[in-house]
Amino acid sequence: MAANQSTEWRAVCEKFRLALELSENESKKDPENNPFRSKYKARDLLNEILCSLKKIELEEYGECENEAGCHSEQTVEAETENGLGKACAGDSPAGLRAARLAVVQYYLGVNHIETEELSAGEQHLMNCMKLIDDCTTTRENVSLFINVRNQLGILWAGRDEIEKAQGYLEIAESMYLLYMREDGQPPLDLQEFFVAEGEEFSTQEKIRRFEMSYTHTLYYLAQVYKNLEEFERAGQYCHSTLQRQLEYKHFVPLEWAINAATLSQYYVTKTRYMEARHCLSAASVIATLAGEIPSEAAAKESEPECEKREELLQKRADIARCWIKYCLNLLQDAKKLLEDNIGELDLDRQDELKRERRNEEDEKEKGRKSAIIFGSSDTYDSICSLEEKVSSILPLDFEEARSIFLVGQDYVAQAKEYFAMDGHVTDHIEILQDHSALFKVLAFFEQDLERRCKMHKRRVDMLEPICKDLNAQYYLLICRQLQFELAETYYEMMDLKLAVADKLDQPDVHTIKKFNHLCSSSMKYYQMFLDSIRSPEGKFPEKLEDELLRPALVAKFRVARLHSKLISNQLSAQLENLDHALESYNFIVQYCEEHPDAKSAVETELELSMEMVSLLPLKINRIKSRLNSN
């Protein structure tokens, strides 16, 4: 009898091994027209194992006089429902048999879920739970406890039952923490319930598998908290997941790098630039572990090489874009801190912050040590080296801002290599817009007005050709963005030229011509933006959409101001310009009278427009009088 059982048990173990091989490896080779072929074969083997286990158990208790055993899933489920075989793993031989049944139910549950049979999968997972839920958490069953709850968490999250998923996953987390606190020894892995004596996993392998089960718990909880909009907790769990994946060397380099880069963007929104920089540095370093980018020649000769080249180029370009956002947001947050009430650099505030910083140098190192660290001994130095190339401290002057700007500009060049205009229109333009924004915020720190003007000219040079060539029929939103930004850029240049001219006793003809060109260019793009809002028949909408309300009224306001700023020696031209200005000011006032809810969107512009509506007619009449007298 013992020999027969030994032979039968070896057969069970071999079936289990083959079922895992089919499910985890062979299934990757299944044809597209039969994608679950290997999964179904694995399921058949798992059901045979269930029958064998039930037969062994019934024979042990003398309750079966024939060798038929059980032959269907329904029979096994009914017996499980009735409590047959229910005991706690580790308590007795019966407990071990019950745990083995639970393990097979678990794998059947996963199998059905992977083949998109969710209800059946849920039933098997619940069968697993029923077999073990009365047990205390022990070295023999803790991995099963955690894994089955992980799977139920995934199942309910997929059904958008996020709070139910949260419940299962938080229990799994609690079980891990309790076990590590009260025992902490490497527990039995699920697969070890079906191995012959002497084939058990090593201690290191048991630890790795158990810790990765818990890492999966943290990963799924990160997704759950994100869906529940608990973003702080989601960020913490995502960071812990990434850290553990590196620690236990269980990660796909490109996937890990993209997740770390994505996490950096969360830290950026929270102005936690030290953590954001660390995530991005780690992402850049870990991405290199995916290997060298195949050459174009190699990609043309081999489809796998072509796919690898495409993936590596895209993911590294995606990481570069995250670096651009890091640099841009760091500069923009510094600008908010340093600007006065008219948007200029507050020199007194600048001096004050510099004094504060000198007194806080020790805090910088203290903060660095409090950040969660990524990397192992072979990557940590590379990560730190990359971190040192860009500051995580808000810049307070032009030189500090410029060093961050240059890093951002380097990543712009990297991102554009993959996201070229040919094939990636939207992405390419977004990168150009970020590049323009980098120049714009750098100009804020520059006190020389002429140099500031040149920085804005660089923005014009990169955006204007795109705006002219882009088809507004297909890219209306992007065209509007570019038109408005170009109008604003020319507008800023006009203000700078006006400030320069105010320092001169009498501006020369060249200066006046340049000033008028900037005014006209700004008006042109504001008008293009406003014309894009018109109906196909050319009619301006009676009521503006919410997202267009402020931009459209601001555009009208600035067109009015620009008309009034144009310089001309001819009274007739002056009169025409002021008439156009008054028309635009009147539009704003009348629109807000007809739509009172619009007033809050343009309070300052409305106040100034009302003032100009009362003053400009006087100026217009004076010019008319002079014309008539001539």
Automatic annotation (TrEMBL):
<dbReference type="Pfam" id="PF12309">
    <property type="entry name" value="KBP_C"/>
</dbReference>
<keyword id="KW-0206">Cytoskeleton</keyword>
<feature type="coiled-coil region">
    <location>
        <begin position="328"/>
        <end position="370"/>
    </location>
</feature>
<dbReference type="GO" id="GO:0021952">
    <property type="term" value="P:central nervous system projection neuron axonogenesis"/>
</dbReference>
<keyword id="KW-0175">Coiled coil</keyword>
<dbReference type="GO" id="GO:1990535">
    <property type="term" value="P:neuron projection maintenance"/>
</dbReference>
<keyword id="KW-0963">Cytoplasm</keyword>
<protein>
    <recommendedName>
        <fullName>KIF-binding protein</fullName>
    </recommendedName>
</protein>
<dbReference type="GO" id="GO:0005856">
    <property type="term" value="C:cytoskeleton"/>
</dbReference>
<dbReference type="GO" id="GO:0000226">
    <property type="term" value="P:microtubule cytoskeleton organization"/>
</dbReference>
<comment type="similarity">
    <text>Belongs to the KIF-binding protein family.</text>
</comment>
<dbReference type="InterPro" id="IPR022083">
    <property type="entry name" value="KBP"/>
</dbReference>
